[in-house]
Design goal:
Elements lengths: L6 H14 L5 E5 L6 H11 L14 E4 L6 E5 L6 H6 L10 E5 L13 E4 L6
Parallel strand pairs: 1-4, 1-5, 3-4
Antiparallel strand pairs: 2-3
Helix pairs in contact: 1-2
């Protein structure tokens, strides 16, 4: 377990993670509201060299950030209710060529890749 006490710590961890991710990598970010999922995604974007701001795609569901080392697909599955709704996003069309990070994706997106990394966030007290 890694304890990240601040938003800056969470972004720094994400930056380190983003620097080693490769095309085809799928990362699931799970945890309650306020656990740092978006901050971690922002750090991953920075580690990939994505220009501009990475914001939560809560209302648009998915954003593709280009211009970094690899395309970065950032998804917020909070409002999705089923794997069929995930299929409608056609994420599988880009997962092989991109780094795909999905907030709230547990139970919905694991089938997009043969393997995935799940990062669980917690709010204090741990």
């Amino acid at each position: 377990m890694v304890r990240l006490s601040t938003v800056d710590d969470t972004r720094a961890f994400g930056r380190t993670l983003g620097s080693v991710l490769r095309a085809g990598d799928l990362v699931l970010l799970t945890g309650p509201l306020g656990a740092g999922k978006t901050a971690l995604a922002q750090g991953i974007g920075a580690g990939l060299g994505v220009p501009g701001e990475v914001t939560s795609p809560t209302f648009v569901i998915a954003r593709v950030h280009r211009g970094g080392r690899l395309p970065f697909v950032h998804v917020d599955a909070y409002r999705l209710g089923s794997a069929l709704e995930v299929d409608d996003l056609d994420l599988d069309a880009s997962v092989e060529d991109s780094v795909t990070v999905v907030e709230w994706g547990g139970g919905l997106v694991e089938q997009l890749a043969d393997a995935y990394l799940e990062v669980r966030g917690y709010r204090p007290p741990w």
